[in-house]
Design goal:
By secondary structure, this protein is α/β, with parallel strands linked by helices. It has 5 helices and 10 strands; from the N terminus they run E-H-E-E-H-H-E-H-H-E-E-E-E-E-E. It has a 5-stranded mixed beta barrel. It is rod-shaped and about 130 Å long. Keywords: Membrane, Transmembrane, Transmembrane helix. InterPro entries: DUF4839 (IPR032290).
């Protein structure tokens, strides 16, 4: 029984008239014709051939090679992981030894953007509030601080309608409390503003304003017109005091 031959089988369909060619080719490949069934258009050919014995020795050798290869890869991987861990530790140590980055944090940047210049935190602005309205200090400050926010205690020196409007105004502001009698400091000007643009706030905030009224002005720096000696501002808020 141990020597019993085992076969593998194969069925091929051919067009009638080509049987001989197919049979010849199959026989060259070791197949034996077992049965032929002819139809009107096609023929069915059944073949068989002895199964080839499995090359167990070769398979065993192949398995052994794979086992050895897997072991080599495992050792290499372990060594690589060790080096990686060491390298990671070295990098961590090196990173810990570095000085903190000088790049400003978002919080610091935001704080700088929200900074309000006053006479208390900027000596140059304190000097400007006491300078003549045509002094070169006006142009210098406007150039360096354009778009930034300033705050100062002042009063309305003059108020007039802007052009032909009834609800839009030009306001002339001065530092201090003297209103129309202001003689020192820049001639700050709000041009073409509505009362609502002033952002009136504080206790008992009025519905409207006029010459002589005193406020804490918060505004953005605009341009300085050297010919007119006017320092233009954009209102942010106007707080009663």
């Amino acid at each position: 029984m141990a020597d019993e031959i085992k076969y593998e089988y194969k069925t091929v369909q051919t067009l009638r008239g080509t049987d001989g060619l197919v049979i010849s080719k199959m026989q060259k490949d070791g197949w034996e014709l077992v049965e032929r069934a002819q139809g009107k258009l096609r023929s069915t050919l059944n073949f068989r051939r002895p199964k080839k014995p499995q090359p167990w020795l070769l398979i065993g050798a192949g398995v052994a090679v794979l086992v050895v290869l897997a072991a080599v890869i495992g050792v290499a991987s372990a060594l690589s992981d060790g080096d990686g861990a060491k390298g990671g530790a070295d990098k961590s140590t090196a990173a810990a030894g570095k000085e903190p980055s000088a790049t400003p944090t978002p919080t610091a940047t935001k704080s700088a953007a929200l900074k309000v210049t006053t006479s208390q935190n900027d000596p140059k602005f304190a000097e400007l509030l006491k300078a003549d309205s045509c002094d070169d200090a006006n142009l210098d400050f406007a150039t360096r601080h354009k778009g930034q926010t300033i705050a100062f205690d002042g009063s309305i020196v003059n108020m007039a309608p802007h052009g032909g409007y009834d609800t839009r105004y030009d306001l002339l502001l001065g530092p201090g409390d003297k209103g129309r009698n202001t003689t020192v400091g820049p001639a700050f000007k709000y041009e073409n503003v509505n009362i609502s643009d002033l952002g009136l706030t504080g206790k008992n905030a009025p519905a409207t304003v006029g010459a002589g009224d005193r406020f804490r002005f918060v505004a953005k720096v605009g341009e300085f017109n050297a010919e007119q000696c006017l320092f233009f501002l954009e209102p942010v808020s106007t707080e009663t005091r």
